[in-house]
Amino acid sequence: MRILIVHSHYRARDPSGENIAVQQHSDALVGAGLEVMHLSRYTDRESQKFLFSLRSATHAVTGLDTNRVVAKVRSYSPDIVNIHNLYPNFGTRWITRLGIPTVLTLHNFRFTCANGLLFRSGRLCTECVVGSPFHATEHGCYQDSRLRSLPWSLGTSIGGSLGASLDGYSAFVVQSTKVKEILQRKGVDPSRIFLVPGFVEMRGGPVFEPPSNPRFLFVGRNTLEKGLTELLQCWPARYPLDVLGPGNEVKSEGLVRALGYLTRNEVQAMYPDYSALVFPGKAFEGAVPLVVREAIESGVPVIARAGSSAADFVKEFSVGEVYAEDTESDVMRALEKVVSRGSEVRMRCRETWYSYLREETWQARMKEVFTWVLKDL
Q: Which fold has domain 216-357?
């Protein structure tokens, strides 16, 4: 089976878990015995070309692509085209002209939200899901600019954007129940939606006993949707919290330590030293975040704020605790429940990784999706 992966890469200066995920998915498909090819465009390169902004706006508004993308796709002779991200370097109208089954893997909510998060000004926002796409322009949702948001709004209105072209796909791979719910609200047939959570590779270490003195870890950027500011404001003074992430303007104070940026391998090696990973994210999240999957693979439970895909996963599989409010009492309750569950919850995490978040599980599920798409011809 020949799979062509189409992806518009985000700028290197903007940390992108999606770029990493696309490479992981590609490697895993190769490992499953499939032939994988790539059609990629890189924003860093495209932005150096003449009239980049105009071309990007044209892609978004009209859906047209001037670079003969249909001919390029057909030249690979793929059995299936697996699209990840098209914005801003590809159009969308070529998809219906291919005559080749297409699977769209969704990492965020760009199909119905200009910034892809369903989150603005510190709160959840679904105005463009249920109302006019010009709310995005009104609020300047894309890159905090009304002008840059306008092409997305126009494209959604006249058929040029990803959201306006959902009927052109054979199937959708979603990585969280949140994305599935929003797709269905947009009118997509549930039979065409496949829930395939992301995976994380096995590091091979044992599941360690929890530390005798409870301590907790936050990993991520200090942006509004990550909820770190609110977490620090209500963090119980009796428990140590280490904060890891790039550009976090967090001062070490009391039992809160700001450790700055560490590599992915360094962070993964640290997980077993903690009682739990704390994930206070306030946005829905298009997938179970990579840091959450990594912690669970390491046998480390997760404490998540209610409302995100991380919280949904934690609650469904009992791999940690969920807190509802940004209050010291609510956070304390979740911390103490995780501590009280001791080694039992850590073993539950590793078992859940083995059953649901292994690479082999993901490979088998994706093969099922591709087989279904080909049978549906």
A: Rossmann fold (3.40.50)
